[in-house]
Every structure is written in structure tokens, then in C-alpha cells.
TrEMBL record, chain A:
It comes from the Bacteria. GO terms for cellular component: bacterial-type flagellum hook. Residues 233-314 form the Flagellin C-terminal domain. GO terms for molecular function: structural molecule activity. Belongs to the bacterial flagellin family. It is found in: Bacterial flagellum. InterPro entries: Flagell_FlgL, Flagellin, Flagellin_C, Flagellin_N. It comes from Desulfofundulus salinus. One of its GO terms (biological process) is bacterial-type flagellum-dependent cell motility. Gene3D superfamilies: f41 fragment of flagellin, N-terminal domain. PANTHER family: FLAGELLAR HOOK-ASSOCIATED PROTEIN 3, FLAGELLIN. Residues 5-139 form the Flagellin N-terminal domain. Keywords: Bacterial flagellum, Cell projection, Cilium, Flagellum. The lineage of its organism: Bacteria, Bacillati, Bacillota, Clostridia, Eubacteriales. This is Flagellar hook-associated protein 3.
UniProtKB/TrEMBL annotation, chain B:
Belongs to the flagella basal body rod proteins family. InterPro entries: Flag_bb_rod_N (IPR001444), Flg_bb/hook_C_dom (IPR010930), FlgK (IPR002371), FlgK_helical (IPR053927). The gene is flgK. GO terms for molecular function: structural molecule activity. It is found in: Bacterial flagellum; Secreted. Pfam families: Flg_bb_rod, Flg_bbr_C, FlgK_D1. It comes from Desulfofundulus salinus. This is Flagellar hook-associated protein 1.
């Protein structure tokens, strides 16, 4: 094939341009550490890359929901534990008051202790986690329980607080504080018993507060058989609280196992992401020096061949 | 027996011919870098020999040569290569304009390196999860409104930029007339090229009629034909008369004859469905996207229209996505509310007076977002939108099903739908630049072949220059010898 000077000049230009383009691309990969920098860089991997990335971000949200839920559950567990201890103590006092050797004054003094316990229980029922009252349903921005003399009022609502911990999987993270009174004493109430609507709040009608109030009254009245009855009721309440505590524990371990699963998943998804978008630095470095060589060779060859012509020998 | 001064004439012819040849070489050297230049060569032949048999004249041993002349100036050219070159140019341009514009489309979306619509979409639904966690929190509500606003702004900007690119290809006024854009510029260029080709053809015909070779005019016309091929498929037939070229050509562009003086090319926009722009060539309508099977899909015009229709598709997809978001979120937020809540998203992407955005009332006062249904809004993120009516998202606190009429995004979730859009842009952009790269290589190869026939090689020209120079010097030497001889004869004899 006949070769002309214009052809050589054009080809030199093309070769240098090609070499430079490749070099620039590799340099980009080298300095960003990524191999997919534009939509067109790896079209087959792109869709997968974007979907995996969305999945990772969603997972992180689920994990955030779980962590948040766990703190709620921990708060409930602690509160229920303290309530249990309080009940134990009340039972001890009741047994003390029921043994029939105490003077009415002493019994009344114990009754006074029980009254203080009721205040303490109101405080426990108003436990907060991160500024949220955990026994208030979703109306959790103000204290739900209020004691007014011998009446206990509930100002929260009856809705449950829940967290989405996986796709389309939503679980309650609270225990119901109170349940609407259905008139049947056999149905189990909420943690703090049953309640009925009273104005724009609820008044507690049965449950732990009522048992403690009855005990206090019996003690104050020095009614030993009434105190005896209360011991049975207190034991029932202890079982009742324990049942809720078991529920909370089960939910906690459920959330923890889902969290482990999500963490595991995230690790794997991050690996997939890395394999899709991260550049193999060692390989890129080798490519870079190889392409640098090619670029220099193209320049050198162009410079050498373009300066030679018959003119050089006609002087 | 030739006359006394016969040798002088031979020397004169020799000098003249070598001068001509040197001039042609000079012309070649001067045009070594001229695009479209075809090297020329003097066709040198001996003149008719001297043969004058007279009565009693002594018969010569043979015919006596009378010298040399340059009979014509030849263009060294392979016209079959031109056909191949033009085909490869057309094909290259088709992909090259697409490569260029897809590069601009890609630049609209910051993915995959930076966070764009895709990750904001995920973040937006994550804020709804946060709102579900703390349904009354005004701070979280503000975050929902802000992220929604960010998402709407990003979608609006992407839509607007795609629209800008589309307008830079074809600008249409409200009356459906084409008023500007790259397509129109190309059509204007085509008309100008056609005008020049017609003018040159007239000049070429005149030169041929006088029996001369219009070499440089032919080069210019061939170059114009190459440029015409950049815009669309070209076919050229050179006409001859009794084996001799007349300089006339038959020229078709998109299969339509365009050599007649009154033929112009224009663009005809039809707003119908699908909206498209067609070429009007001398009263004939040529579709740019729906080609007749006999023509290959090539040239800048078809490439531009192809990518323009793609952009319309992407804009349509973005619009679908925004409407799907607006309608499903609205339905979910309205669950259990009578009268309905205010809309979360308002407007539409294409509407300048009512652009797609988070409801201004919500932006002003984010507490207007109702947190009770936040969970169901968050769940929308992972549901394949297949157009199901009354899809059950879950049950509310009262045990009533929360239902929503899903949008139809071909069973994709919002994220998947958008990612598919990005993947399509990436794939088409990638294949356009691959194709452009390979077509460029092919065009370059064919151009090399053409250059190898018609290009000027300076070394070659220089050696010829030396050759002709020696020839000239030798003729001058002959002249001097005869002059000396005649001087002796005239001045010294007698």
C-alpha cells in the first residue's frame, strides 16, 4: 500500500489521541478507586449496582428501626422488672401486715408505705426512653399516668407503637399500658390494668393500682383478712407482669436475630457493591504504566517519523 | 530531411513539457495537506513522429521523433473507493452524533458516583420510616418535607435538562414550526452543500465541453459529496457520453433525486403520536426513524432524530415516575381521612406554571403531614407497581385494610423503575460510543485506502521534481548544443 505524509500525520494524531484517552480513563480509575464512573462504563452491572445500593440503604434504615425498637423494648423490660420488685416488696409488707401480731397503728404505717409505692409505680409507668413515654401508646410526648387522690388516670392512647424491621414486617415494640374495660374480670388487662373513658382521658378501673389501693385500705383499716386477700391478688399481678416481661424478652431476641441477619446481609451486599464498582488498584496501576509506555512510544514514533523526509537529504 | 532549426523545436518542446510537469509537481506539493485533494500527474507522451516521404528524398532509417508534449493532466483517483468512503462516513456520523448527545444525557444524572435521584428516592422513603417511628415529631416531619422537596427538585432539574437537550436538537414554536436546533442547522447545511454542488457541476460541465480536465473542481465537488454523506445516505452516478465523462451526475439523498435546481430539503414536524420530525425533499416525505428497508439507517440527521425520540422517552419515564409517586402517596395519606388530606406532591414535571413539587403548604408548615399512615407510605418503596387496584398495604390500628391503587410501572418499584431508566441510558450511551468508535475506525481505514491512491507523497514528488529538473537541464543542454552549432554555421562560415 502506498503511504502518504498526510496519512502518517493523521494516524499519528489518532494514535496519540487513542493512547491519551486510555491513559485519562485509567488515571480516573486510579485516582477515584472506582471502575464505574459513568452510566455507560458498565451498563450490565449498572442496574444491579444501583439496586444493590438502594437495598443497602433500605437495610440501614431497617437496622435503625430495630435499634430504636430495641431501646424501647429495653426500657419496657427495665420498667417491668422494677414493677416486679415493687410487687415483691408489697407482698412482703402484706405478709408482715397479715401475720396478726401488729398493732393497728403499725399496720396503718405499713399502709402508708404502700401508698408511697403507688406514687413510685406511677413514676415507673411514666418511664421515658429518649424523651418518649414508653407506656403512652403513640401519644408519647407527655406523661401518661396521673394520680389524683385514690384515682389513677391514663392520658395516653390505646394505639400500639410498632417498627418495620424488614420489608412489610411490622412489629409492636411496646406492651399495652392499659386495655379498655370490657366488664369481664377474667380478660387480662394491660400492664397497668383496665380502664374506661373518662372525659378526654381514661380512668383505671382494675389492675395493679387497684390491688395496691385495696391493700393500702385494708392495712389502714387493720383488716387482716382483707390484707390476706390482697396477697393473692398481688401474686396474680406478679404473674401478670411476668407474662408481659416474657413477651418483651421474646420480641427483643426476635429483633436481635433480625438485626444479625441484616448485618450479615449488609456485609454481603457491600461486598457485591465493591466487586461491581471498585477498581482493582493493582491491575489499574499495571495498566497505567503500560499505557504510559504506549503513549510515550506513540509520541516518540510520531516525532521521529514526521521529521524525516527526502528534504533532509536534498540540502 | 527535416529543416535546419528542427532540433531547436524538439528542445523547446522538451523544456516546455518538463516545466509543465514541474508545475504539476509543485501543485501537488502545495496541496499536500489540502483536504479532498487528489494528486495530479502530467501524462507525457512523444509527439507524432516526423515522416515526410518526398520524391527523391533519401529514405530515413525510421521515423524521426519530434519531441514530447504533456497531453493531459490526469487525476489519480479510484471512484469506487468514494462510494465506500461515503457509506462509512454516513454510518460514522449516525453513531457519532448519538455518542455526543448521549454523553450530554449522561451528564444530567450524577449517578453512579455521586448521589442523585436514585439515592434521594431511597432516603425519601427512609424518612417516612423515621416518621413512623416518631409520628408526632415536628423535626422528622420537616425532614420528610425537605427530602421530598429535594427529590422533586432533582426530578424537575433532570426533566428540564433533558428538555434543554431535546430543544438543542430541535426547537419547535407553538405553531409546530421548526425554528432552530441542530437538526435544522444540519438541514440548512445540506441545502447549502446542494447549492454548491449544482454550481460546481455547471462549471465542470463547461470545462469538459471545452475538452479540458476540471481536476480541482472535481476535487471540490467530491469533497462536498463527502460532506453531504455526513448528513444522510448519498448515492452518486457519474454520467458519460460515449465513454467520456460529461461532468454531470445523478445524485440522490435519502433515495430522492436532489440534483435538479429546485429541490430543497426541509423539516416537517408532526405533533401526533408518536410525534416525529420528517424530511421533505423536493415534495417527497422521508421519515427519519422509520426508514424504507432499502436504505441503511445512517447519517447525522437520522442519528439526531433517533436520540431525540429517546430523550422524549426518558422524559416520559420521569413524568410517569413523578405521577406514580404523587398518586400513591396521596392515596395512602388519605386513608381514614374524610375529607381528604392535602396532597403531598403537587403539579407535574412538564408544567411550567405548576411544576412538580412538595405541596407549598407542607413546605411552609411540615406539621401538616399526617404521621399515622407513615408506615404505609414507607412500604410503597418496596412494592412492584403493576397497576393493581386496591392493593392491601396492611391494616390500620382499627383493623381496617389500608388499600391503594398502584400505579403501573411495569411491576417495578419506584427505585427499580428509575434504575432501569439509568441503565437504559448507560447501555445506549455505551453502545453508541462503541459503535461510533468502530465506525470511526472503518471510516479511517477507507480514508487510508483513498489516501493511498490519491494522497500526495512528498518524497515521491521530490524525486519527480529532481527527475524533471534534470530533464529540463538536459533539454537546455541540447538547445545550447544546437545553438553553438548554428552559431558556427551562421557566423563563422563563409
Amino acid at each position: 500500500m502506498r503511504v502518504t505524509h498526510m496519512l502518517i500525520a493523521r494516524r499519528t494524531q489518532n494514535y496519540i489521541q487513542d493512547a491519551m484517552q486510555r491513559l485519562a480513563r485509567t488515571q480516573e480509575q486510579m485516582s477515584t478507586g472506582r471502575k464505574v464512573l459513568r452510566l455507560s462504563d458498565d451498563p450490565p452491572a449498572l442496574s444491579q449496582l444501583l439496586n444493590v445500593r438502594a437495598a443497602v440503604e433500605r437495610n440501614q434504615q431497617y437496622m435503625r428501626n430495630i435499634t430504636d425498637g430495641l431501646s424501647y423494648l429495653d426500657g419496657a423490660d427495665t420498667a417491668l422488672g422494677t414493677t416486679g420488685e415493687l410487687l415483691q416488696k408489697a407482698i412482703e409488707y402484706a405478709i408482715q401486715g397479715a401475720n396478726g401480731t401488729l398493732e393497728p397503728d403499725d399496720m396503718a404505717a405499713i399502709g402508708e408505705q404502700i401508698d408511697k409505692m403507688i406514687d413510685e409505680l406511677v413514676d415507673i409507668a411514666n418511664t421515658t426512653v429518649g424523651g418518649k413515654y414508653i407506656f403512652a401508646g403513640t401519644k408519647n410526648d407527655r406523661p401518661p399516668f396521673r394520680r389524683d387522690g385514690d384515682n389513677i388516670f391514663y392520658q395516653g392512647n390505646l394505639e400500639r407503637v410498632s417498627r418495620e424491621i424488614m420489608d412489610q414486617a411490622n412489629y409492636a415494640i411496646d406492651v399495652p399500658a392499659v386495655i379498655l374495660d370490657d366488664g369481664n374480670p377474667d380478660t387480662p388487662g394491660g400492664v397497668f390494668g383496665e380502664a374506661q373513658v373518662s372525659g378526654d382521658e381514661y380512668e383505671l378501673t382494675g389492675g395493679i393500682f387497684q390491688v395496691l389501693l385495696a391493700l393500702r385500705n385494708s392495712l389502714k383499716a387493720a383488716d387482716a383478712s382483707g390484707v390476706n386477700d390482697s396477697i393473692g391478688a398481688l401474686n396474680d399481678q406478679l404473674d401478670h407482669i411476668l407474662r408481659y416481661r416474657v413477651q418483651v424478652g421474646a420480641r427483643t431476641s426476635h429483633f436481635e436475630s433480625v438485626r444479625d441477619q441484616l448485618q450479615d446481609q449488609e456485609l454481603r451486599l457491600t461486598q457485591v457493591l465493591s466487586s461491581l464498582e471498585d477498581a482493582d488498584v493493582a491491575r489499574v496501576a499495571v495498566d497505567l504504566s503500560r499505557q504510559q509506555l504506549a503513549y510515550q512510544a506513540a509520541l516518540a514514533a510520531g516525532a521521529r517519523i514526521l521529521e524525516t523526509s527526502l528534504l533532509d537529504y536534498l540540502r | 530531411m527535416p529543416g535546419t532549426f528542427f532540433g531547436l523545436e524538439i528542445a523547446r518542446r522538451g523544456l516546455l513539457t518538463h516545466r509543465t510537469a514541474m508545475d504539476i509537481t509543485g501543485h501537488n506539493v502545495a496541496n499536500a495537506s489540502t483536504p479532498g485533494y487528489t494528486r495530479q500527474e502530467a501524462v507525457i507522451a512523444a509527439t507524432d513522429p516526423y515522416a515526410n516521404p518526398t520524391l527523391g528524398g533519401k529514405l530515413l532509417p525510421g521515423q524521426l521523433g519530434t519531441g514530447v508534449e504533456a497531453t493531459m493532466i490526469r487525476r489519480i483517483k479510484n471512484e469506487y473507493l468514494d462510494v465506500q468512503a461515503r457509506d462509512s462516513i454516513s454510518s460514522r456520523e449516525y453513531w457519532q452524533v448519538q455518542e455526543e448527545i448521549f454523553g450530554r444525557i449522561e451528564a444530567v444524572f450524577p449517578e453512579p458516583v455521586a448521589s442523585g435521584i436514585a439515592s434521594t428516592l431511597t432516603r425519601f422513603f427512609n424518612t417516612w420510616h423515621d416518621l413512623n417511628n416518631t409520628p408526632q415529631d415536628p423535626g422528622v416531619k420537616a425532614a420528610v418535607a425537605e427530602t421530598g422537596g429535594e427529590l422533586a427538585t432533582m426530578m424537575r432539574e433532570a426533566y428540564q435538562q433533558l428538555n434543554d437537550i431535546s430543544i438543542s436538537i430541535l426547537k419547535i414554536d407553538s405553531g409546530g414550526n421548526v425554528t432552530g436546533g441542530q437538526l435544522k442547522d444540519q438541514v440548512d447545511a445540506v441545502n447549502e452543500i446542494l447549492r454548491q454542488i449544482r454550481e460546481l457541476t455547471e462549471s465542470i460541465k463547461r470545462v469538459y465541453a471545452q475538452g479540458n480536465q476540471p481536476n480541482d473542481l472535481l476535487d471540490r465537488r467530491d469533497l462536498l459529496l463527502d460532506r453531504l454523506a455526513e448528513y444522510g445516505p448519498v448515492s452518486v452516478t457519474h454520467l458519460t457520453d460515449g465513454g467520456k465523462p460529461t461532468g454531470e451526475i445523478n445524485l440522490t439523498f435519502f433515495g430522492v433525486d436532489v440534483i435538479s435546481a429546485d429541490v430543497t430539503v426541509s423539516l416537517e414536524y408532526s405533533a401526533g403520536s408518536p410525534e416525529e420530525v420528517k424530511l421533505q425533499i423536493g415534495g417527497k416525505e422521508v421519515s427519519l426513524t422509520d426508514y424504507p428497508a432499502s436504505l441503511p439507517k445512517v447519517g447525522g440527521l437520522a442519528g439526531l432524530e433517533e436520540v431525540r425520540s429517546r430523550i422524549s422517552g426518558y422524559m416520559y419515564n420521569l413524568d410517569e415516575l413523578s405521577q406514580a409517586l404523587a398518586s400513591t402517596i396521596k392515596q395512602v395519606l388519605n386513608h381514614g381521612h374524610e375529607p381528604p388530606q392535602i396532597d403531598f406532591f403537587t403539579g407535574s414535571l412538564g408544567d411550567k406554571s405548576d411544576p412538580f413539587a412538595v405541596n407549598p403548604e407542607i413546605m411552609k408548615d411540615p406539621t401538616k403531614i399526617d404521621g399515622t399512615n407513615a408506615l404505609y407510605v414507607a412500604r410503597l418503596a418496596t412494592i412492584g407497581m403493576d397497576g393493581t387496584a386496591g392493593y392491601k398495604l396492611g391494616e390500620d390500628a382499627g383493623g381496617n385494610p389500608v388499600e391503594v391503587d398502584l400505579a403501573d410501572l411495569g411491576s417495578a418499584t419506584f427505585n427499580e423503575y428509575f434504575n432501569a431508566l439509568l441503565a437504559d441510558i448507560g447501555a445506549r450511551s455505551g453502545s453508541a460510543s462503541d459503535m461510533a468508535e468502530s465506525r470511526r475506525t472503518v471510516a479511517e481505514q477507507v480514508e487510508s485506502l483513498r489516501q493511498s491512491v490519491s494522497g500526495v507523497n512528498l518524497d515521491e514528488e521530490l524525486s519527480r521534481l529532481i527527475q524533471y529538473q534534470y530533464g529540463y537541464q538536459a533539454c537546455a543542454r541540447v538547445l545550447a548544443a544546437i545553438d553553438e552549432m548554428l552559431d558556427y554555421l551562421i557566423n563563422r562560415t563563409g
